[in-house]
Design a protein that fits this description.
- Helices cover about 10% and strands about 40% of the residues.
- The chain is mainly beta.
- Strand 4 and strand 5 form a beta hairpin.
C-alpha cells in the first residue's frame, strides 16, 4: 500500500475555461504482484474549479474515484512502474459530464442571459418550439381484450 500526492501538472491537464486543477492529485493505492503481473487498485482525487453547465459560473469541487484498477505485465520485477496514464484516465473519467454549481441551479435566461440564481428577469417562459409538435400528437393506448383506442394527450 502506498499513498501520497503528485502535482496536477504531471497529468498534463491544461487549465482552460471548463476545468482548472486547484491542487495536487491525491492517491491511495494497493499494488499486488501475481506471477508476472502487477495489479493496482485504489482511489485517486483532486480539487478542481469547473464551469457550471447551466449558469456558466465557476465553482470548486472535489473530483475523486475510488475504483482505480489496472493490471500490467512485469517484464522485470525490479523496474519502476509508471501509473501516470492510468491515474490521468481515472481522474478525467471522474469529471462530471454535466457539472452543476448546485443541484438546484436555475441557469441563465435563454432570452436576456440573466443569471436566474442571482436576479429575476421579466422575460416570459417560452415553450420549447420543437416540443409543440408533440403536443398535438394522438397516442394509441392499449386497453382490455387487445383492443386499442385513440386518446389525445392532455396538458
Amino acid at each position: 500500500d502506498f499513498e501520497g500526492e503528485e502535482p496536477s501538472s504531471s497529468l498534463g491537464l491544461d487549465a482552460h475555461d471548463e476545468v482548472e486543477p486547484l491542487g495536487p492529485i491525491r492517491y491511495d493505492l494497493h499494488a499486488q504482484r501475481v506471477g508476472l503481473e502487477l495489479i493496482v487498485t485504489g482511489a485517486v482525487g483532486m480539487r478542481a474549479a469547473l464551469m457550471c453547465a447551466r449558469c456558466a459560473c465557476r465553482f470548486e469541487t472535489d473530483i475523486s474515484d475510488q475504483s482505480l484498477f489496472c493490471e500490467m505485465e512485469l517484464k522485470d520485477p525490479h523496474t519502476p512502474v509508471d501509473l501516470t496514464g492510468e491515474v490521468r484516465e481515472t481522474i478525467i473519467l471522474a469529471f462530471p459530464t454535466h457539472p452543476l454549481c448546485k443541484p438546484a441551479c436555475r441557469g441563465l435566461c435563454p432570452r436576456c442571459g440573466a443569471d436566474r440564481n442571482r436576479e429575476r428577469c421579466d422575460c416570459k417562459e417560452q415553450a420549447e418550439p420543437r416540443a409543440s409538435v408533440f403536443d398535438r400528437l394522438d397516442v394509441m393506448e392499449r386497453i382490455e381484450h387487445g383492443r386499442t383506442q385513440k386518446k389525445k394527450i392532455e396538458k
